[in-house]
Automatic annotation (TrEMBL), chain A:
Catalyzed reactions per annotation: L-aspartyl-tRNA(Asn) + L-glutamine + ATP + H2O = L-asparaginyl-tRNA(Asn) + L-glutamate + ADP + phosphate + 2 H(+); L-glutamyl-tRNA(Gln) + L-glutamine + ATP + H2O = L-glutaminyl-tRNA(Gln) + L-glutamate + ADP + phosphate + H(+)
Superkingdom per UniProt: Bacteria
SUPFAM superfamilies in UniProt: Glu-tRNAGln amidotransferase C subunit
Biological role: Allows the formation of correctly charged Asn-tRNA(Asn) or Gln-tRNA(Gln) through the transamidation of misacylated Asp-tRNA(Asn) or Glu-tRNA(Gln) in organisms which lack either or both of asparaginyl-tRNA or glutaminyl-tRNA synthetases. The reaction takes place in the presence of glutamine and ATP through an activated phospho-Asp-tRNA(Asn) or phospho-Glu-tRNA(Gln).
Family: Belongs to the GatC family.
NCBIfam families reported in the protein's UniProt record: gatC
Lineage of the organism: Bacteria, Bacillati, Actinomycetota, Actinomycetes, Micrococcales
Designated name of the protein: Aspartyl/glutamyl-tRNA(Asn/Gln) amidotransferase subunit C
Pfam family, one: GatC
Single GO biological process annotation from the record: regulation of translational fidelity
GO MF annotations, alphabetized: asparaginyl-tRNA synthase (glutamine-hydrolyzing) activity; ATP binding; glutaminyl-tRNA synthase (glutamine-hydrolyzing) activity; transferase activity
InterPro entries, sorted: Asp/Glu-ADT_sf_sub_c (IPR036113), GatC (IPR003837)
Keywords: ATP-binding, Ligase, Nucleotide-binding, Protein biosynthesis, Transferase
Amino acid sequence: MAAINRDDVAHLAQLAHIEMSDEELDRMATELAVIVDSVKSVSEAAGADVPATSHPIPLTNVMREDVVGHVLTVEEALSGAPDASDGRFKVPAILEES
Amino acid sequence: MNTETILSFEEAMEKYEPVLGFEVHVELNTKTKMFSSAPNVFGDEPNTNVNEVCLGLPGVLPVVNKKAVESSILIGLALNCKIAPHSTFARKQYFYPDTPKNFQTSQYDDPICYDGWIDIELEDGTVFHVEIERAHMEEDAGKLTHMGGSTGRIQGADFSLVDYNRSGVPLVEIVTKTIEGAGSRAPELAKAYVAAIREIVKNLGVSEAKMEHGNVRCDANVSLRPHGQEKLGTRTETKNVNSLRAVENAVKFEIQRHAAVLDSGVAITQETRHWHEDTKSTTSGRPKSDADDYRYFPEPDLVPIVTSAAWVEELRATLPEPPAERRKRLQADWGYSDLEFRDVVNAGLMDEIEETIAAGATAAAARKWWMGEIARRAKLADVDPAALGVTPAVVVEIEKLIASGAINDKLARKVLDGVLEGEGTPTEVVAKRGLAVVSDDGALQTAIDEALAAQPDVAEKIRGGKVQAVGAIVGGVMKVTRGQADAGRVRELILKTLGVEG
């Protein structure tokens, strides 16, 4: 795993919509490099025959039956919204399509 | 405005070979959402089918809908996929208001279904083998309505309103491998592929499969390469193609546009394109960029799905007859020629004819009515024949009335008029409109005598042995009886009256 550099941190910050100052970028680049190094030691411990762990507990197939449960009222749903109109959440127009 | 230059399709085909790929999203028709027990219902008032999970509120936990997993496995099995013994969910992270969590729960490394195939039959019977890379489970996003501006599109909008009713609706995304070798049939293949997927999920009963409701949505990938070149060209992904005709048109347009761009010596930009039904063209969305770094990682709140062989086989045992096999069986049962059967399929009348035959009509009679008189009226009314209002039972009853001699073909069409105008069953229409064939020989004889008296020269010809002249008298009788006579019986009676052997 390549060491994480300042550009990587700036890129991640942009992806995560986190505004960071130059000073913060410098500091995080150093700190994240240490974390990445620590994670690397895990990779060294596990051999090629050990599958990646997605979950720490050996639990599978936690599922529910297809039965309708509770819903919120429109008022409840919108109660935490910064802005609402016409029973809907009102958001700034964002040109980027997902 | 769209100022794209395009090449003619023929010229594009002369120079380049198209390569396709499709991502089809299928909305499942489960009662509840993928990860929450909120109802999965189309068309309700905004934000009335949501709970904490659909809104991505802090601290909530998703729980997988078992029925949705089973529906996904059924789709995989119907597409000849392998079913993963072990699969996980992942977070696909992006910022957009349709996704309140700022990530979509999807699958990444280990989709539940993979390595499948489907044979696609075009209208003329040509078969293309399309390989399926994967079919994975995910959730739908909320619906944005762009407000303000003049166009109703996002360009120039002042703000957007969000309805999260669709947020969390179970989706299965079916991804093909690259499809090569379609050549000039590419647009047609695109349409046929999406039609086949729609037919399969509808037949499985796992989706409402209505494209106009967004139950089946297609993103079409197109690239071109010069004939003989191995390396794939740069592709574009056209979104928002939500009818079968649009899929065909969008693929055709992109082929023509790519060809013009490549011809001018410019490279294709790898980007998302948006299909516009009004202008029948695509416009540039956004280029693939850093924003496509979705930073997938395993969803910590959902544990893996493990499918045992027993579970998969149990589901496999419930698979209905595949649509393509059903078509082969029905054609053989009905004895239709390839052309006759293809016409029936293309008219979308296979189910109606099957039901009509099951209700007691012969295969020939069912085809005669649905493909003839009913299809003709549907075309005039600009509706699907199946939606015209004629039921299989009506066809069977009319056929019975004809067979019993109560009405003839001409009267049957009037009976159909009455049924469509809401006058009741065919038998009721016959009674109300007085449409029964005049079978009273006395009444017919009067009409015949009058017709013979009106055309004495014709009567003389017939007496003299020109039996074919009888048609003129039959016509006269039919006119007088307003078509309500049995023409065969009239002919017999005329000849008898004149003492001539038929």
